[in-house]
Amino acid sequence: MTAHGAANGTADIEFIDVSKHFGAIAAVDHVDFAIARGSFMSFLGPSGCGKTTSLRLIAGFEQPTTGDVRIAGTSMVGVPAYRRPVNMVFQHYALFPHFNVADNIAYGLRQRRPRPDRAEIARQVDATLDLVRLPGFHARRVWELSGGQQQRVALARALINRPTVLLLDEPLAALDRKLRRDMQIELQNLQREVGITFVLVTHDQEEALSMSDTIAIMRDGRVIQIGSPRTLYDAPANRYVAGFVGESNFFPGEVVAADERGATLKTAAGVVLSAPYPPGGATLVGTARGVIAVRPEMVAMWVGPDDPDGAAEFSCRLGGRVHNRIYLGDQTEYSVATDQFGDVLVRAAKASALEIGPGQEVRLGWRQASGLALVDS
């Protein structure tokens, strides 16, 4: 698979049939991808899916068992970490506690041969502190910094060496929600400003969706799908991707009809549902089972026997009882218990949210085109 924009020879990172084994365990299993120069790429997946091992293969902390890892067109197989044009920001930052901020940032420059002179090091430290919005922090000690400030110092220490690729190993995991959101924006701005390829490892789908140009969804050492956040959300390759990127209601069933446009399934409750395939999605022709996925925001909910405007187009209608309501500020989520499908998740925007509480009887419906017919894997 190839990341967007990397097919024309402008890839900063390439994996060519790469596998990494630890004994009998294949942590990375025959993976191919390319990451476009100057892009922001994320590896997303649960623990043990191979995303951190992939990052370590790029960094040089691990060597592939088979295959080739290339950076800027040059094979890195056998090249140690300290000789690769990459820098890494770790989850816990790994700052030197006995150094002040300026000395932490300058550490990489002082290891160069020939070493830049003091004036040049000072100039670059000043410029990098300005870049990460920490001017005047030179003399601060690590323990005097907040979590967000420590993260910026770690970024500055990595960026001052002007690597071809900056690797980010869950760097926001230790921050609180508000600060994490602020740093997501800062990282996006910083990446655009410096123009360096950023590669992020995360298990946080919101983080990956909000920051990345391209996301690789991993499972059991393999890349299941790679694409833009919008592509992964609107056109997931299968149930696994649809469940990992955003939230969906899944209605599995027996395939009773399928062609090149979409499929019709009969669920265990006897309900017949139809939906189109996502753009570029696999067909269910010749398969015994599949799943219809419906995003929560595509499900309409109303009270009373009278259908709302547009309900005539609904391909599915059912009744239920609100089980839970979660207020999210700009949205409200409802878990609705139904006889046919168990709990169905509904998400309503603030402007359209109804004053509906737990225990209330409601009606649900959605259009056929609002669902996706997917491979159930």
Give the SSE layout:
Layout: E1 11-22, E2 25-36, E3 40-44, H1 51-59, E4 66-71, E5 74-75, E6 86-89, H2 101-110, H3 118-131, H4 147-159, E7 165-169, H5 177-194, E8 197-202, H6 205-211, E9 214-219, E10 222-227, H7 229-234, H8 239-244, E11 249-258, E12 262-267, E13 272-276, E14 289-294, E15 300-302, E16 314-327, E17 331-338, E18 342-349, E19 361-367, E20 371-374
Parallel strand pairs: 3-8, 3-9, 6-7, 7-8
Antiparallel strand pairs: 1-2, 1-4, 4-5, 9-10, 11-12, 11-14, 12-13, 14-20, 15-19, 16-17, 16-19, 17-18
Helix pairs in contact: 2-3, 2-4, 3-4
Task: Provide an overview of this structure.
The protein has helices at 51-59, 101-110, 118-131, 147-159, 177-194, 205-211, 229-234, 239-244, and strands spanning 11-22, 25-36, 40-44, 66-71, 74-75, 86-89, 165-169, 197-202, 214-219, 222-227, 249-258, 262-267, 272-276, 289-294, 300-302, 314-327, 331-338, 342-349, 361-367, 371-374. It is an alpha+beta fold and 377 residues long. It folds into two domains: 11-234, P-loop containing nucleotide triphosphate hydrolases (Rossmann fold), CATH 3.40.50.300; 247-377, OB fold (Dihydrolipoamide Acetyltransferase, E2P) (Beta Barrel). It has a six-stranded mixed beta sheet with strand order 6-7-8-3-9-10, sandwiched between helices. The chain has a five-stranded antiparallel beta sheet with strand order 13-12-11-14-20, with no helix packed on it. Helix 2 (101-110) packs across helix 3 (118-131), helix 2 runs parallel beside helix 4 (147-159) and helix 3 (118-131) packs across helix 4. Residues 1-5 have low confidence and may be disordered.
